[in-house]
Design goal:
Blueprint (H helix, E strand, L loop, with lengths): L2 E6 L4 E6 L2 E10 L4 E4 L2 E5 L13 E4 L2 E8 L5 E5 L3 E7 L5 H12 L4 E15 L5 E17 L6 H31 L3
Parallel strand pairs: 5-11, 6-11
Antiparallel strand pairs: 1-10, 2-3, 3-9, 4-5, 6-7, 8-9, 10-11
């Protein structure tokens, strides 16, 4: 399995306080939103894709940095749920943790408002267009490792390179299948 990160730009987080403490909440993924991995390669997530992974041991991080843990669903400081819009999360901020409070204030001011998440793909499909572009649709997340609030969310280069390689391999297979079909038609086979 390949661990990947997905960028989420079409979301907003809010930082607020109530009688239970400080928290950051928002959508870590929005269903059917188009995420551009690189020019010509896009990806989206279908509703229901997170249904099997909400009980995974998931951490909330800052910028995918495992030393900056904001919350964890096992310790009940991270709440995750899937609704009609996407994967929603709420992180209870440890007010004794200066790094967490710094991020809380950055989100509150609107300086940081993007996210990403680390996951394995369970099920996906790809649609190749005649113009050479490709769109991948993730229908099932295989494992959810972490959700991150990010300053500059981006795919790791290895993920982009892997997806580019997948695209080229799939295009070659499609071309070979077409060639084989044409040969069989010329021979009179169907």
């Amino acid at each position: 399995m390949e661990k990947r990160n997905m960028v989420c730009r079409s979301t907003q987080f809010r930082a607020d306080e109530d009688d239970r403490g400080a928290y950051i909440e928002g959508y870590f993924a929005v269903f059917d939103s188009i995420y551009e991995m690189c020019p010509g390669i896009t990806e989206s997530i279908k509703p229901g894709a997170f249904s099997g992974v909400l009980n995974d041991d998931v951490r909330a991080l800052t910028n995918h940095d495992s030393t900056l843990v904001l919350g964890r669903n096992r310790s009940r400081t991270l709440e995750l749920r899937e609704d009609d819009r996407g994967l929603w999360g709420r992180i209870t901020i440890n007010q004794e943790d200066q790094d967490a409070m710094n991020l809380y204030h950055r989100v509150q001011r609107g300086d940081v408002d993007q996210c990403s998440f680390g996951f394995d793909i369970g099920e996906e499909s790809v649609d190749f267009q005649e113009d050479g572009t490709a769109h991948w649709t993730i229908s099932q997340v295989g494992r959810l490792y972490e959700v991150s609030i990010c300053t500059f969310p981006a795919y790791q280069e290895t993920s982009v390179a892997a997806r580019k390689a997948d695209t080229e391999t799939a295009k070659k297979r499609s071309l070979e299948a077409w060639k084989e079909k044409m040969k069989n038609q010329l021979k009179g086979d169907k």
